Amino acid sequence: MERLDLDLSRPPPLPETVEECHRVIEALWRALGEFQQIQARVEELEEQLALGSDNSSQPPSQDSPKKRAERKGKRPTGRKKGAQVGHPGHERALVPAEAVDEVRHYFPHGRCECGGSVAVRGFRPHQVFDLPEIRYRVVEHRVYEGRCGCCGQKHQGRLPDEVPRGQMGPGLVAWIGLMTGRYHLSLREVEALLEEQWGLRFSLGAISQSQIPLQAWLGPVYNQIGEAVRKALIAHADETRHYRGRSIYWLWALTTDQMAYFLTHYSRGKGAAGELLGDFQGILVTDRHGAYNDHPQDSHQYCWAHLIRNLERIAGRKGQAGEDGERLLRAARLTVHYGKLWQQSHYPSDRYRRRLERLKALFRRELEQAAQRHGDNKTGRSCRKLLDDFPRFWTFLDHPGVPMTNNTAERALRPYVIWRKTSFFSQSHRGDCFRPMILSLVETCKRLKIGVYQTLRTICAQGMAEGEVTFRLPLPEPQPLPVASP
């Protein structure tokens, strides 16, 4: 491209001929096009710098310190941290007398300084909680052998079926599973904690090998959770990265308020989503990931929190795109506001439903106008994609009781994300299978308010004694959705 050599310290000379004028105009026209390209690139880079968890799929842990401060949205009050003067106190409740292990009595002196006798009329309880001295328990099983005095045939005793063939009992195997699956400790940390707390020394390989039978024993309960969650009327689905060494896999989750089912897969596509959902026929709540779109449109709800983040990104652009994004963002936030009010009214309110119907019409109209106004640029393509997905955002209107966000699935994946960051990922196919099994049990027990350790111990005891686990979780039956008044 021809460039003009101009001395900016003084005005350029005026062209003297028509040909010179044409050359100057052509050079300026090319320079203008180049400037527009540079300006578009600068705007794109500025938009990328402004990305955060509030306007993209970026996790909050990757936000900059400035973004984290803005996300909190609280102004400093000037008060010190901690409890404020005058706040109501919260004291630990006393345990009942039958639950106390030891009672010690402290009486006042029998005589007062004035010479009178002191009569005891009551006491003030002061309970102290402490941990006992911890020591492991060892049971030695002696298997005797002998020979027949007549024929010399050798005879040997036999261990009962309930005695483990290895050196780890059900309590220890369950404890290792709890430390890894519930508290996300690495195997080396489990090895160190065993020696520090219990005085037990097991090799890293032995601790890893203990997960092999536990994985087999977890199978029936894991399948029970998967079958039950696929029969639910409403379920939430989401996925996150799962690593095996340097290879990237995916951990998928299908959850309800009472159950959580996890699955590892090499793919993030529709095949993996189909394997996760199985024969699920209920209403599915997801983000806008296209792998779930084989599910019927009239029973598929998109997450409004994800939509708002997408609109935040459009609203952060300059010019007409930003103005259109602001209008769409206001309509989306109003929809979520009135949707919550409608849900809190338990759905008989026609007033909130009429407002939601009007917001639905307004939102579509704004999207259509923005798509037409911006043509084939980035904002126009985003608006047309939202129009294609439009029915999936409003399933909650046709099926009251369906949540507007996918928070249930995201909260279920959060413990795994933390575990992934604090460990060396998975190193084998066995680890890929074990993690979703233990996570499914742990997260389901938490939702059912059942002790994870006692559940694991029961499963391990049955597996060691009987070779078959008959234990099943008390999973709830599907409940019907609320019905809106006509």
Descriptive terms for the model:
486 residues, alpha/beta, two-stranded antiparallel sheet, 15 helices
Describe this structure in words.
The chain is an alpha/beta fold and 486 residues long. It contains 15 helices and seven strands. The strands form two sheets. Strands 5-4-3-6-7 form a five-stranded mixed beta sheet, with helices on both faces. It has a two-stranded antiparallel ribbon with strand order 1-2. It comes from Methylomarinovum caldicuralii. Residues 11-92 form the DUF6444 domain. Residues 47-94 are annotated as: Disordered.
Concise summary:
By secondary structure, the chain is an alpha/beta fold. It is 46% helix and 8% strand.
How would the blueprint of this fold be written?
Elements: H1 18-49, H2 65-72, E1 145-147, E2 154-156, H3 170-181, H4 187-198, H5 204-209, H6 211-230, E3 234-244, E4 247-255, E5 260-265, H7 270-277, E6 283-286, E7 300-302, H8 304-315, H9 320-344, H10 350-374, H11 378-388, H12 395-398, H13 407-421, H14 429-448, H15 452-466
Parallel strand pairs: 3-6, 6-7
Antiparallel strand pairs: 1-2, 3-4, 4-5
Main beta sheet strand tally, sense and closure: 5 strands, mixed
Number of strands: 7
Helix content: 40-55%
Q: Bin the strand percentage.
A: 5-15%
**Strand order in the largest sheet:** 5-4-3-6-7
The computed structural class is: alpha/beta
- Secondary-structure element string: HHEEHHHHEEEHEEHHHHHHHH
Q: Provide a count of the helices.
A: 15
Compute the average pLDDT.
86
Low-confidence stretches: none
Seen as an oligomer or otherwise, the chain set is single chain
Give me the Rg, rounded: 33 Å
User: N-to-C terminal Cα separation, in Å?
Assistant: 69 Å
Per the principal axes of the C-alpha atoms, what is the gross shape?
A: extended
Protein name: Transposase, IS66 family
Pfam families: DDE_Tnp_IS66, DUF6444
Biased composition (Low complexity): 53-63
Biased composition (Basic residues): 68-82
